[in-house]
Amino acid sequence: MIDRYAVIGNPVAHSKSPQIHTLFAHESGQEMAYGRLLAPLDGFNETVERFRAEGGKGLNVTVPFKEEAYRLATSHSQRARAAEAVNTLRFDAGAVYGDNTDGEGLVRDIRDNLGVAIAGRRVLLLGAGGAARGVIGPLLAQHPKGLTVANRTVERARMLERHFGANVRASDYEALSGSQFDIVVNATSASLAGALPPLPGGVYAAGSLAYDMMYGAGLTPFLERARAEGAGLTADGLGMLVEQAAESFFVWRGIRPRTATALASLRAA
Ligand code: ATR
Fold it and tell me: Of 9, 47, 153, 223, which one is least surrounded by beta carbons within 10 A?
């Protein structure tokens, strides 16, 4: 029987993961099937267990189930523990392994695809929800010069500062005025409501990178604003999506697929 994987979420119809993993499987010569699994909001565990009982080998987990997936897993990678969220489940005999590949996906896209070093740079992360939390550990592992986490509700940023230690500095948006950064990452959900994080002017250093973890057709509003504010380079989250998928693929199959073809084909679509 062919090994089965899927992305589980609610909603899940829009997910590009089936397309990405099918390309990876094809490119790396792996025989596997990858589908979509819509779980009821109050039925995550049951949906996972059914998939597993039917022989499923692993799942990608998306909104809003990453914290529930963390609790469901019986063992965790260190990065999943730091994030307290899981986007990759692997079903082993008698155990469920939980990992979080989001942060590694972001780092690989910035560093390898965009060619922007994180080491020694001033990094600003906007937002303090699950999306932000999931990428802090891997960003810190690159040894930036500093990592500032700015959030509308500053107490949530302070919680992350306490959790990740002295290398993270919490801030509200106003207090960023007068500071400059080399890399600014938008991990807020503001774009979903057509809003912008209230970033003061002047934070983009010359040649800086503005990165939006969201993606869509054309520039996101955040990236449009960043360009007007003087960011030298802009990138949306499509590369992160493909890179986190490649890392999940590796967790399941022990093979790291090349990502360039999948990224180019998603861009073309
Ligand atoms: P996710 O898991 O996607 O991170 P979340 O935990 O609901 O979702 O977090 C959403 C993040 O986007 C939060 O940092 C939120 O700021 P608050 O903690 O102050 O709510 C941020 N956010 C959402 N809308 C925003 C807006 N219009 N301006 C600035 N930040 C916003």
Answer: 153
- Give the right CATH number for 103-236 from 3.60.150.10, 3.60.130.10, 3.40.50.720, 3.90.550.10: 3.40.50.720
CB contact at 8 A, 121 and 144: yes
What's the pLDDT at 218? 85
Catalytic residue status for 66: yes
Atom of ligand 1 nearest to the CA of 188: 12
| Residues linked to residue 91 through DSSP beta bridges, in sequence order | 96
Q: Which stretches within the chain are classed as H helix?
A: 17-28, 44-53, 66-72, 78-83, 102-108, 130-141, 154-164, 221-228, 238-253, 260-268
Instruction: Classify strands 32-38 and 3-9 as parallel, antiparallel or unpaired.
Output: parallel
Active-site residue among 16, 57, 66, 145?
A: 66
Looking at ligand 1, which atom is closest to the CA of residue 132? 4
pTM for this predicted structure: 0.96
pLDDT in tens, 182-207: 999 999 999 888 899 999 999 999 99
Q: What is the CATH number of domain 3-100+243-268?
A: 3.40.50.10860
